[in-house]
TrEMBL record:
Tagged with keyword Electron transport: no
Subcellular location: Membrane
Topology class, membrane: Multi-pass membrane protein
Keyword list, A-Z: Membrane, Transmembrane, Transmembrane helix
Pfam families tied to this protein: UNC-50 (PF05216)
Superkingdom to which the source organism belongs: Eukaryota
Name of the protein in question: UNC-50-like protein
UniProt keyword annotation of Secreted present: no
Record InterPro entries: UNC-50 (IPR007881)
Family affiliation: Belongs to the unc-50 family.
Chain ranges passing through the membrane: 73-93, 100-127, 158-178, 190-212, 218-237
GO CC terms of this entry: Golgi membrane
Amino acid sequence: MQLPTSYHPSNGRRSQPRSYVAAYLRRFLKPKQWDLEYTFWLMLQLCISPKTAYRHTAYHKQTKNQWARDDPAFIVVCCVLLAIASLAYCVVFGDSAWHAVLTVLSVVLVDFLLLGVAIATTCWVITNRFLRKRNLHHHQVEQHVEWLYAFDVHCNSYFPLFLLLYVLQFLLSPALLWRSFLSSALSNALYMIAFGVYHYMNFLGYSALPYLERTEVFLWPIGLMLLVLPFSVLSGFNPSIRALSFYFG
């Protein structure tokens, strides 16, 4: 699969050199070049001070002239953590080794990577087509959102969601899986917070780019979820039961 890089709405061309993307992909095979210390520091900042994490992104732009990370370590660590969490669920709720393999592959490849590619591409198109500042001063250079940066934003936003919906949900599963009003309300609140944090982190990621405007559109899904939340709770819908039923029947 060939991934887009950056986009010019005027001519549809890619401006980011393909050699950069090729070098980025090659680094997946060179673990010695991964900066794991920075990766774990970034994960910590995304939990306690996400604005600090994105301020560091601006420093990255100043030093390396690109917004996207040039290190795939964050993606690799996320995939490993997702695989471990999925295996923990399989040990408790699964029924066979083959089912566990399929579940882990589905969570890592589909839920995180393929869905992330779709979300990043959608945000990449929206930001470049509709959210870039048009009335620039004569000394300002027109800039475009890099596709790899859009995918970085997805990965950054997914990590807190992972902690809430994979780790915390697993720990609270005895309470969340009871068929009661309280369990349903608690599960809905957990999913609301998790996806609310995801969209808020998306907002922070794109608002960190000085050439974008109206980035508050990335907060709109939170408003929609707040409208739906009371109906979901009153109807007795339990997203934890529904999610685990999808994977484990």
